[in-house]
Amino acid sequence: MLIANARLADGRTVDVRIEGERIAAVGSLGGEADVDAAGKLLLPGAIDAHVHLREPGFPHKETWETGSKSAAAGGVTTVVDQPNTDPPTTDGAAFDAKAELARKSLVDYGINGGVTGEWKPDELFSRPIFALGEVFLADSTGEMGIDAELFERAVERAAREGVVVTVHAEDATLFDREALEAAGEGVGRDADADAWSAYRSAAAEVAAVERACEVGADSAAAVHIAHTSTPEGIDAAAAAGATCEVCPHHLFLSRGDLDDLGTFGRMNPPLRSEERREAVAERVRDGTVDIVATDHAPHTHEEKEAGIREAPSGVPGVETMVPLLLAAAERGELTRERVRDLTATNPARVFDLPRKGEVREGMDADLALYDPERVETIRGQDLHSKAGWTPFEGFEGVFPELTLVRGAVVYQRDADDDGAGESEAFGEPAGRNVRG
């Protein structure tokens, strides 16, 4: 395949030749083009290092097929699935069962190994796990929170194995239970969702980030802090030499949006104040934050229509991550190069994926082509997750026209002048475990 006249994030216009699964050449190549990009933006396929595709156990929420279609339609070519499924991915048999299901994925993937009181590290580390984590320092979906002693043992073992530890950092001893007890009895979009933000306090995140980094330093482990929602947590991770991620919902939403979202805006960690959101966004722009990942955690509309104490935590996001960031770039809020780095180049570096994350000769041909001038309105009904809704309803997004995984077309659409897809098509499952 030859993609001609593509604009890269750094502004260069190039041709890209693909041979088999790899990029064979980048430059002024000539020859008959299979795809004339006509100056549109070509980015390396995004790596979403934090998704919950819900299989096994909860296929009514999402499956590897539907979740990977949603990823491909958002320009994501690699996803990393977390362990809080049913059964949790804490032993060899559970890993093998999930790996079999993952064969339905259209995009490449990693499978994280989890930690509970019943985990079997010898079995897990004999499998091609992506990383250890999400290791939960407080209960979230799946109730996999662990105590301090087990966390220390897990980090020590990961350090010996040379595996990154991804940490869900919240200290449950600092949760404000009185704030949750004072919440009203509304449900769904009428619920007092702000009580959840007050309950799972910012202080709880910051303390847990600091503790996770201390334990990591004691074992010389590589620690990655998942879904940091506070500037203080980001700064603590950076000061300790750990890496961290920010999710689009913490970047684009705040407690001020909860009057409209209700329990559809309940997640862990929760939304923060507008002041903190702005400070997080500044750290995303200035390079303090390493990556953006989604914590894609779909639940059905019916499940979310509950009270603030009963509704499940989490929001879908894998399909809207890059579109939201590109729309922000078009508004001048960050650069296209920063979007590339946050979603592709830096995740490949943090998690040691040497053939991914760049448009360069010899790299996997994981690519997504965008028309930056086609800014669309995000609608949940147009997305491909089983959730069927999005917390970003009405936001602007720039969606891909073409997505390739190792040279195979996994998503393609032809759009009309209004930005709506006249037609779209998905390829066959092409995904592989990036750890072999």
Describe this structure in words.
The chain is built from 14 helices and 19 strands. The protein has helices at residues 64-73, 92-101, 121-124, 148-161, 177-181, 194-199, 202-219, 231-240, 248-252, 258-261, 274-286, 301-304, 321-330, 336-350; strands at 2-7, 13-19, 22-27, 35-36, 41-44, 46-51, 76-81, 108-111, 132-136, 165-168, 223-225, 243-246, 291-292, 367-370, 376-377, 396-397, 400-405, 408-415, 421-426. The strands form 5 sheets. It has a 5-stranded antiparallel sheet with strand order 5-14-17-18-19. Helix 7 packs parallel to helix 8. The longest helix has 18 residues, at 202-219. The radius of gyration is 21 Å and the shape is globular. The two termini are 25 Å apart. The mean pLDDT is 96.
Summarize the structure.
Helix 2 links the parallel strand 7 (76-81) and strand 8 (108-111).
Task: Write out key terms for the chains shown.
29% helix; TIM Barrel; 436 residues; 19 strands; 5-stranded parallel sheet; 5-stranded antiparallel sheet; alpha/beta; single chain
Structural class: alpha/beta
**Rg on CA atoms, Å:** 21 Å
- Helical stretch count? 14
Helix content: 25-40%
In the CATH hierarchy, the architecture is Alpha-Beta Barrel
Beta content: 15-25%
Largest sheet: 5 strands, antiparallel
By CATH, the topology is TIM Barrel
Low-confidence stretches: none
- In total, how many domains does the architecture comprise? 1
Shape: globular
* Mean pLDDT over all positions: 96
Distance between the termini: 25 Å
In CATH terms, the superfamily is Metal-dependent hydrolases
Widest beta sheet: strand line-up:
5-14-17-18-19
Q: Briefly, what CATH class?
A: Alpha Beta
Per DSSP E runs of 2 or more residues, the count of β-strands stands at 19
